[in-house]
Write a structure and sequence with these properties.
The chain is α/β, with parallel strands linked by helices. It folds into 2 domains: 45 residues, Homeodomain-like (Arc Repressor Mutant, subunit A, Orthogonal Bundle), CATH 1.10.10.60; 266 residues, Rossmann fold (3-Layer(aba) Sandwich). Strands 1-9-8-5-2-3-4 form a 7-stranded parallel sheet, sandwiched between helices. It has a two-stranded antiparallel ribbon with strand order 6-7. Strand 8, helix 14 and strand 9 form a beta-alpha-beta unit. Helix 2 crosses helix 3. It is globular. 40% of the residues are buried. The model has no long low-confidence stretch (mean pLDDT 88).
Length: 326
């Protein structure tokens, strides 16, 4: 008896609905009365039978394939995605496009069974509030990589780790856990005692299971730094960090242009977060950054081993190439 997934007429219809009418797999399944797995197999059959032929046209003006390969080779990265900055777009439009492309990249990168660490901040919040809609994963977990208990918001949005993890689960499916702690403590000793509590230290076990991290990088001298707006640091502390050579932070922990952190232990040791040394051990570490000012922060993160995959815009990518060539 002929299986439904071998019906070439139905395969053609499924391909038309997916590629021409932009219906997703669930919508097609509901429309035709078949399972999503059958839709997926018929889409694959469409390629095998030549019903669907995918042709990539890369306009020469937006040819970033070569630049991506250069950055991968120069900095030893596993993958680089460069998103166009059009001179015709406003900064808001360009940023919105970057965040949308980043969301697409993450959706295609994630797989069932992943335990995914996420950081706090405006960048990742912007990624998950895009109007992109995806089929939901069932078996993935999002873990905030730093504490996230505070009354503060940033520009009216809660961008702390717990809320970012929740928004990622809403966007991509799966579940999330919480890190029930303030992000920054007044004293390292207080933090150490706090992390011994059973009500909190479960998060250390969750950290060990993370196999993918999605990371944003801050710049200490920025007046709108999330640390400052959320009340986790003062202007004086950020100036001290910048004067000491800090070029960026991941999980609220600062590093210099070579990825070194020793000089900033006076601040880093008071942060309730996954330690940068442990972040290095995560197999896939996806950094998202935009703008040429972020380039030095990105370089420090790469040299420190904190990211090995980069999603960025053309502005930042060109600056990274100039630094490397210099």
């Amino acid at each position: 008896m002929k299986k439904i997934v071998d019906d070439e007429r139905l395969i053609y219809k499924v391909c038309c609905l997916y590629y021409q009418d932009n219906m997703n797999q669930k919508e097609i399944g509901d429309y035709l009365g078949v399972s999503r797995s059958s839709v997926l197999r018929m889409l694959q059959k469409g390629k095998e039978l030549g019903i669907v032929k995918i042709k990539l046209n890369n306009p020469s003006t937006f040819d970033y394939g070569e630049m991506e390969k250069k950055l991968e080779n120069m900095y030893g990265l596993k993958d680089v995605l460069i998103v166009e900055n059009s001179v015709l777009d406003s900064k808001t439009e360009a940023a919105s496009y970057l965040f949308g492309q980043a969301a697409d990249y993450l959706y295609n990168f994630f797989k069932e069974g992943d335990q995914i660490g996420v950081t706090m901040g405006q960048t990742l919040n912007n990624v998950v509030v895009t109007n992109k809609v995806y089929d939901k994963f069932k078996n993935i977990m999002f873990v905030p990589m730093e504490g996230g208990i505070s009354q503060s918001t940033v520009d009216g949005a809660d961008v702390q780790g717990n809320e970012i993890a929740r928004k990622f689960a809403d966007k991509f499916g799966g579940t999330y856990t919480q890190f029930l702690s303030p992000a920054v403590f007044s004293d390292k000793v207080v933090l150490d005692y706090f992390m011994q509590e059973k009500a909190v230290n479960y998060i250390l076990d969750e950290f060990k299971k993370i196999n993918v991290a999605v990371l944003a990088m801050g710049i200490p001298e920025k007046a709108d730094h999330t640390l400052l707006k959320a009340g986790y640091a003062t202007n004086r502390e950020l100036r001290t960090l910048a004067d000491g050579g800090a070029v960026g932070d991941i999980c609220l922990q600062f590093y210099d242009k070579d990825g070194n952190t020793d000089k900033f232990s006076f601040f880093n040791d008071r942060v309730a977060a996954m330690r940068l040394d442990n972040i290095r051990r995560i197999p896939d570490k996806i950094g998202i950054a935009s703008g040429e000012k972020k380039a030095v922060s990105v370089i420090g993160a790469i040299r420190g081993g904190f990211i090995n995959i980069l999603v960025t815009d053309a502005e930042c990518a060109k600056r990274l190439l100039k630094y490397s060539e210099a």
